[in-house]
Amino acid sequence: MLSKLFKAICLLFVAVFYTSFAFAQRTEISLNNDWHFSKDSSAKQSSVINLPHTWNKDDVMDDAPGYYRGPGWYHKTLTLNKSFKDKAIFLYFNGANQETDVYINGHKAGSHKGGYTRFCVEADQYLKIGVNDIAVKVDNSFNENIPPLTADFTFYGGIYRSVSLITTNKTHFALEHAANGVFVTTPDVSPSSASVKVTGEIDGSANDVQVITTVLNGTKTVAKATTSIKDGHFEHTLPAIGKPHLWSTDDPFLYSVKTQLINKTTGAILDEVVNPLGLRWFKFDGEKGFFLNGNPLKLVGTSRHQDFEGIGNAIPVNYNVHDVELIKQMGGNFLRVSHYPQDPKILETCDRLGILASVEIPIVNAITESEAFTETCKNMQVEMIRQNFNHPSVIIWAYMNEVLLRPKFSDDKPRQQQYFGHIKQLAQALDSLTRKEDPSRYTMIACHGDYNRYRQVGLVEIPQIIGWNLYNGWYGGKTEDFGKFLDSFHHDFPALPIMISEFGADADPRIRSLQPVRFDKSIEYAVDFNKVYLKAIEERPFVAAAAVWNLADFNSETRDETMPHINNKGLLTWDRKPKDTYFFYEANLIKQPFIKISNWLIRAAITDSLNQSVATQPLTVFSNAAKITLKVNGISINTQQVSDGMSTFNVAFKNGINKIEADAIINGKAYKDEAIIKFNLIPRQLQSAKQANLNINVLLGAKRFYTDKARNIWIPDQAYKPGSFGSIGGETYVMKGNGRQSYGTDRNIINTTDDPIYQTQQVRLQGYRFDVPPGKYEITLHFAELTTDKTKEALAYNLDNSTNKEASQERIFDVLINDKPLLQKFNVAAKYGSLTVGTEKTIVTVANKNGIKINFKAIKGEPILNAIQLKKIS
Ligand code: GCB
Predict the structure, then answer these.
(1) Are 608 and 679 contacting, i.e. CB atoms less than 8 angstroms apart?
(2) Which residues of the chain, if any, have pLDDT below 70?
(3) How far is the CA of 797 from the centre of ligand 1 (A)?
(4) What is the pLDDT of residue 6?
(5) Catalytic residue flag (residue 461)
(6) Which of 403, 444, 454, 502 to mutate to test the pocket of ligand 1 (most atoms within 8 A of CB)?
(7) What string of H, E and C letters represents the secondary structure of 116-162?
(8) How much is the pLDDT for 249?
(9) H/E element holding 476?
């Protein structure tokens, strides 16, 4: 008991007594622990939390539409001892979404607009030695004057990045715009020499002080200069560095730049800031693409959202590092940090690993034509640039994404023209501001594929690089249109550098297909899609850069589809597990030997007609070898060529466990990957079924395979043939409504996370048969009424569609099993509600050779069935 109390007292001391070290110039102490959080201003019913924190981690995943957008309050006690006397003290926020007011001892000490840039509150005039009360109000409500206004991602609220207490001398490098006050540029870099220029601002008295900057290679000084301060400003160019070790994507060598503020008389160091330095030069060329240090370099990588499964956006800081490592591991050399600036660790890691980066502010889809909106955008742009200025990885500052996708005022053309004029003005203002703030980088805006619109509005000519977000073959058209689009744009604007700022297709890792089609969400469709795109990108030197949308799946609360609330375009799942699309890029991009068997590891199929003991299915191996030899269950089946980083084998799988080995020789050395594939072999002729545990799970109206939460594997339906099983009559459900296109329905099904089981169906079905031998079976019928009057806006990106207005169908039918009524006057919607799971289970004893006959008898409307399961009990 006593020891517990003692421990608690010790912890209290550690947690609340912050000490500023007398000799340190600038100290930074984490303030992440022990905050009280509540959604109202009284801390009485608060919970104790540590930062990073978001209040939306759970409600973005429930079936109820929407998530909490409003205020949240954070309180903390901060006890300062005497060492803080006469210091400048700042509360430094790495990110809080999206409007923040900071109160210290009841006084409003600062506020900030925008959820993605850092900010810093000058606190010393409100703090006292002793106990202080810090209260932070964060609000993620919609605010028409803060971008983003709408977007395909979730605006999680909270102090979702770290907070710290920074202490400096009264005279220090300015922390304006939450930058570190020192700005490093490299006006001339070549293999023989590099010049480094350092500028900055000072706060406090500049009497008797000077600035010393040292460029270090490890601990070795390679250049040094001293300068004085004029009107709070300093600037100096250091002596040239001979034969610099250049920074590149393959060899991301970093020097460091230490800048010190020194008292001339005493020699005391008043402040010190260390920045990274990468010596490199680069350019974008309209015809030839991108060059780093004079060498052409095709930039290929991904975009990245910051949230993670089960955590939301309040991720531990190392998750940021890991994401950049995953891009590097894939062979990527480019990151579009989108749609907003991210944790400082992202660019730090890009510097260290050699990933070039584009960073942007979140003006997505729309703008507000107000002075206040423009001001917030400009301020964000300046914050983004100054806070990230010294990262050698940054090559592009961007500021708009798809602002003409669904422009406002579509019913009032003159008003819309005026709106377009305002967008152009804003783009022009941000572009000029960016070039003035940082003439050494390029500007970019990301546009959706309607290039005439961007041209007419006059946006194409404003940035130095045009980014295209292209989804040909996903939201519309064909994958082949991608290359054609690029060629025609390049033909019209040959001098304008182009990057593919987005391209991607949804891939739900639970869905696989042997007949992949657009919108089926299968991994196979996404692999094919990426294959076409990567080839087109590689074939065109004028395409400077390309970023797959997206590194990982991410939350977009308003989305429904197969995995409600998730955008599945990630190469990795939301918890960063690789999909085959990730292996595809590894095989195509990395230089080290690579061989990896597709991770379609739980499979099922109906046996080949003549051979009831195997089922043949394709199996893909991803590799950068020339040839691959595949062994299945110890027997070598074939050696095949690899093209586009992959080779697909036809494999005869047996029931149960199949051991797969893929072997390749790369540069004279042997490489291997192994996998175990669990196969549920379903006999075509059920009478001869040998499986004691016969288990058939069928999706109706679908041509895809699905692995559910319980790891059951579902197969596509077949038309019934005597001796086997399948549906009789009817047709696949197709969603009707303003041309909305989807695979089955794209709406969320209530009461399940296995939505794909319910999202397709057979309509006007007459019957279902299983010609099973005598025995006891469990039959489960799965229903969901997919027609509904509940409307939902289609995704803005889905250009073919607008809103879903599919009139609900009334249907009443009887279901009989072996002539006995199972469901009478059954009305799925009336019993369960529309778009909601309805499951009906029964046990059937088969005594004769007639198997199981299920009949659907329409009383009103058309009978339906979404999925069916048969399980042999005895
Ligand atoms: C886009 C948007 C991005 C979306 C993406 C998609 O064009 O820029 O924010 O997430 O499409 O997946 O639809």
Answers:
(1) no
(2) 1-24, 42-44, 689-692, 737-740, 793-805
(3) 6
(4) 45
(5) no
(6) 502
(7) CCCEEEECCCCCCCEEEEEEEEEECCCCCCCCCCCCCCCCCCECCCC
(8) 98
(9) none
Residue from 99, 402, 502, 524 carrying the catalytic annotation: 402
The token duo for 487 is 């060629």
Q: Give which of 527, 478, 520, 486 is closest to 504, Cα–Cα.
A: 527
State pTM to two decimals. Answer: 0.95
Amino acid at 426: L
Question: 522: number of CA atoms within 13 Å, CB side?
Answer: 19
Residues 396/359, Cβ–Cβ less than 8 Å: yes
Query: How far apart are the C-alpha atoms of 11 and 46, rounded to whole Å?
Result: 21
List Cα–Cα distances, 684 to 281, 692, 718, in angstroms.
64, 15, 11
Retrieve residue 192's tokens: 């023989």
The ipTM value here is: 0.99
Side-chain-side CA neighbours of residue 285 (13 Å): 14
> What is the 8-class DSSP label of residue 34?
-
Nearest CA among 851, 604, 858, 811 for reference residue 720? 851
The confidence score (pLDDT) of residue 17 equals 43
Asked whether the beta carbons of 127 and 105 are under 8 A apart, the reply is: yes
Given this model, what pLDDT does residue 5 score?
Answer: 46
Nearest CA to ligand 1 atom 3: 152
Which atom of ligand 1 is found nearest the CA of 501? 8
**DSSP secondary structure code for residue 674 in this structure:** E
Q: Whose CA is nearest to atom 4 of ligand 1?
A: 152
Whole-angstrom distance, CA of residue 850 vs CA of residue 771? 7
Looking at residue 12, what is its pLDDT?
40
Looking at residue 1, what is its pLDDT?
42
